[in-house]
What we know:
Distance between the termini of chain B: 70 Å
Helix content of chain B: 25-40%
Number of strands of chain A: 9
Structural class of chain A: alpha+beta
Oligomer: heterodimer
CATH class of the largest domain in chain A: Alpha Beta
CATH architecture of the largest domain in chain A: 2-Layer Sandwich
Strand content of chain A: 35-45%
Radius of gyration of chain A: 18 Å
Order of helices and strands of chain A: EHEEHEEHEEHEE
Largest sheet of chain A: 5 strands, antiparallel
Distance between the termini of chain A: 22 Å
CATH superfamily of the largest domain in chain A: ACT domain
Strand content of chain B: 15-25%
CATH topology of the largest domain in chain A: Alpha-Beta Plaits
Bound molecules: flavin-adenine dinucleotide, thiamine diphosphate, magnesium ion
Amino acid sequence: MKHTLSVLVENTPGALSRITGLFSGRAFNIESLNVAATLDPTLSHLTLVTRGDEHIIEQIIKQLRRLIDVLKVVDVSEGEFVEREMSLIKVRAEDESRAEILRISDIFRCKIVDVSPKSYTLEVTGPESKLKAVIELLRPIGIKEISRTGNIAMMREKKTI
Amino acid sequence: MAKMTGKEMVLEALKREGVDVIFGFPGGAIIDVYDTLEKDGTIKHVLVRHEQGAAHAADGYARASGKVGVCIATSGPGATNTVTGIATAYLDSIPMVIFTGQVPTALIGNDAFQEVDIVGITRPCTKHNYLVKDVKDLPRVLKEAFYVARSGRPGPVLIDLPKDVQNGKAEFVYPQEIKLRSYNPVIEPHGKQVERAYRLIEKAKRPVIYAGGGIIISNADAELRALAQAMHIPVTMTLMGLGGFPGSHDLSLGMLGMHGTYCANMAMANSDVIIAVGARFDDRVTGKIEAFAPLAKIIHVDIDPTSIQKNVKVDVPIVGDCKRILKKLLDIVKDVGRPDEAWIDQHKAWLEQLDTWKKRHPLTYKMEPGVIKPQNVIERLYEMTKGRAIITTEVGQNQMWTAQFYKFDHTRTLLTSGGLGTMGYGLPAAIGAQMAFPDKLVVDVAGDGSIQMNIQELATAMEQCLPVKIVILNNQFLGMVRQWQELFYDRCYASTEFTMTPDFVKLAEAYGAKGFRATRPEEIDDVLSKGLEAKGLAIMEFAIAREEGVFPMVPAGKATTEMLLV
Ligand SMILES: Cc1cc2nc3c(=O)[nH]c(=O)nc-3n(C[C@H](O)[C@H](O)[C@H](O)COP(=O)(O)OP(=O)(O)OC[C@H]3O[C@@H](n4cnc5c(N)ncnc54)[C@H](O)[C@@H]3O)c2cc1C
Ligand SMILES: Cc1ncc(C[n+]2csc(CCOP(=O)(O)OP(=O)(O)O)c2C)c(N)n1
Ligand SMILES: [Mg+2]
């Protein structure tokens, strides 16, 4: 099962490598990892997507909490939550495919953030399923490069981490 | 406020933390701290002969005394030499603070002379570690390091000190108390959980207490004994738990697991309620996990939530400090006030069954005329030193025979590397223990292989005039590995036989110590008493049966009831 964990951690050098080291050292997997500052500059917020059965997820959460730098770990996928990912996709755009790309972009409410005689760069935001769909449609046209943020997530309603 | 240099802060912190002795080895990147310590003169420094020895000595000091052990090394090779010692302490949850020198901050990352990323290297084998980049942070880091090392589930904490930080100046404000927003170990248990545990125990017909290293770490030996006696529940211990409950007590089943007693393993397999206290269901204890304690409901007391549900399903988890939890349970037992006879009646059949198992297959070995049996040496050592010795061990058969045949009656009297199984641990650990207790008898039970892994520390012990005693069980084999080869690899003794061994008696003499050797059973007592009564350090070498095995033995991956017996 896929789980999305929200982790609040001290913004210190080494904190991130403690977390990734934990995953590699204990043979847990990371599907995606996103790290950024929070409103409090001394803290970082980390969104981590991982897979495993109930037992493994329990161990992952406990092991994360055990790290001295980690303040809080929440499995946001346990309840109602929103999840978003952003991707920049550079796609080959020549002749008739230029119009086709614009159509796809429109349907999925993407933004064209860069244009050149031979390519478009699209910005697409949404849940993973949407990104997948866009990528599948653009693939036959010719994706030159792709860059993804990995998931960020938040619990719904009034809950905060 | 007057400013202080980083090296002075280290000294000041050591004093405030009540550190009286540290173990180490100098070098260019830590020379400044050494200078400050030496000129001040308050903190005793033990100069080892190899930094691994310093780490194990600090660890032995910590295990024997319950205090935080401290060691110190230079950058680069000095720091890497401590790694095995740090990992050893980490796996057995031993409180330690390790100081390492580092190249100046401006050079970090440049492959400077004797630079290694020791913080990176030790990240997975420390509880926490710090690279101090600004001397202003040092007072807080020092305070935090000692706090983190000794609180919750203890462990080693490393502080890497660049040379310019050692010499830089800042105000020294040493926090009186420390509160970390991201680290708050749970000490006080959930009351409801303790009550649930009691209700389960109250109904149990075949209960067992499975006691681990947590009992020793939290100094809960008295509470454990009181509880076991109050409810008439038998106790089995892990290797790390030995001494946490008296080995010679009627309710003791001895050690469980791979080389545990027949009775202890049968007890676990047939129990209906297992009370695990400060133990972590290691694979050496559970054997084949699917077959482990199939009939039992499990109560698991541990301060570290990651230990709970890691390997086995637990029915009543209780997170908190063993000592508090056992006390609470004891309070409930007293409040409920069941008469003693009620407990006895309820467990009578079970205790009788255990007694039958004990008698059916006690720990034993076959005597052979003219040949020294290692188990016999340990039995005699126990008889001659009962209760007054701290025993350290090396790793291998020597360690297992000690665990089986020395009845540890007191807490903190067995210092052994259980989790990492580090050969070469015993001698430096004995040095640390002897520094903590100068008047106690400290004995390292060693194998001929392991002792050679940190043999250089003989010089350290001699220099400090430490009367450490070393019993070498010499089988001219890496015996434990040989035993596996005998049982599971068609007796193909690949690289486990020593065709060359030093003359340990002469070796002792070369260091200015005493050496004694026994080659026949009649000489055991004589050699032991000569060695134990000698004034200073003594090596007692026993030429033991070369292919003696450790039994019972549960082959790796088998159920614990599938024991190979003598
Ligand atoms: C050659 C060899 C053979 C071995 N054979 C055996 C064998 O036959 N049987 C055996 O038992 N072991 C054996 N071992 C040792 C084994 O590898 C493990 O080290 C050992 O079983 C672990 O002991 P433990 O479960 O008590 O855990 P420890 O490693 O002592 O861990 C202590 C536990 O207590 C918890 N704790 C710490 N402080 C507290 C506190 N204040 N309150 C509550 N909980 C606390 C910790 O979180 C941890 O879970 C062998 C080792 C070697 C090298
Ligand atoms: C540093 C290290 N290397 C290798 C091992 C693997 N090992 C475990 S027991 C053992 C044999 C130890 O031999 P010895 O000290 O003579 O003890 P004996 O088993 O013969 O009593 C070995 C090699 C280990 N535990 N530690
Ligand atoms: Mg040997």
